[in-house]
Design a protein that fits this description.
Helix 9 crosses helix 10. The chain has one domain. The chain is mainly alpha-helical and 332 residues long. The longest helix has 34 residues. It is 68% helix and 7% strand.
Amino acid sequence: MSFFEALQPVHAILVVQLLLLLLSGALTVRNQHTAGMTGANFVSAFLAEWHKLMSRIFARAGLVLALLIGIGMPPFLYLLKWGGLVAGNRIWTELSPENEAIPWTPIDMDSGLIYALWMRNFFIMAAFLILLASVSFAGEFKAKTLREDMLRPVPRDMLLLAKWSALVAWAALALLLTWLPCTLESFVLFRGGGNMLLVTEGFMASWLVDVSIISAGLFLAVLTRSVPITLLGLIFLYGADYGLSVSLGLAPTHMLPDDYKYINTAKEAFLPFTYSNAVEFWQGYNTEPSRDIATLGDKLSTWSLQGLSTLLLLIHASMAGAVLWFRRMDVP
């Protein structure tokens, strides 16, 4: 058993979120001492950024969509069950040669949460997060409204952190709008079975993935100062990482001679750290075997510490890079 397998934490996401809060607090305290800024100044900057964020139509549209996913999924599954498309409390997805239905997944009390989580994480909310992150900085820079923000008694570091905090709060609210109605309806429609707490941890893990997308988006927005380039850049980087993961996973390095087995060992150690693996960190709640695209083999999802460390590194590196670049930037 490897070091990372030995430290599989079911509640590791809670520790990481605490670390993020401590990091934000440390940055705030540091700037209070170096720039004479008070907590009230930062709260004021955060509220201003929040109101500005919520004034954008696609921010409101994203929250409405998140709510609709949470409200609609349990009744949809209930109608499938009531309409005879399920038997034995399982959804029939395909037929075997003997014309016998093959079960896929049980419809239990946590089924609504599971399917809602899969739907919102299928690039739907990621698209809103990328757009909001790019517009929050690059859009304001092009519109020449960023200068107005800099007139507040807030250092540049804290201005960027206020934008980041508003986006992170939006992501948390979107998750809550999906989780809360879905949970309440599931208690009413599907009584018994499933593990609501474990799937809820999947929602919390999704928040961390959202934060990584926000951080990377802000960094590219500060770096390029262009909304289209930020959008295309994030799509390109994810596509390149995914292509690399699949290519390495399919590479027959296990067939190398014994003298070169270290190449296969290095590949297997590297793959879990790729971002395309890290964005699936939220799937750690799943205890059902699934199909691994990279290796074309069956796998059992677990909380991946490698993916966790990748997300945490990306968040810290992206925000540090964005702050350093913003400090030296000329704002018209």
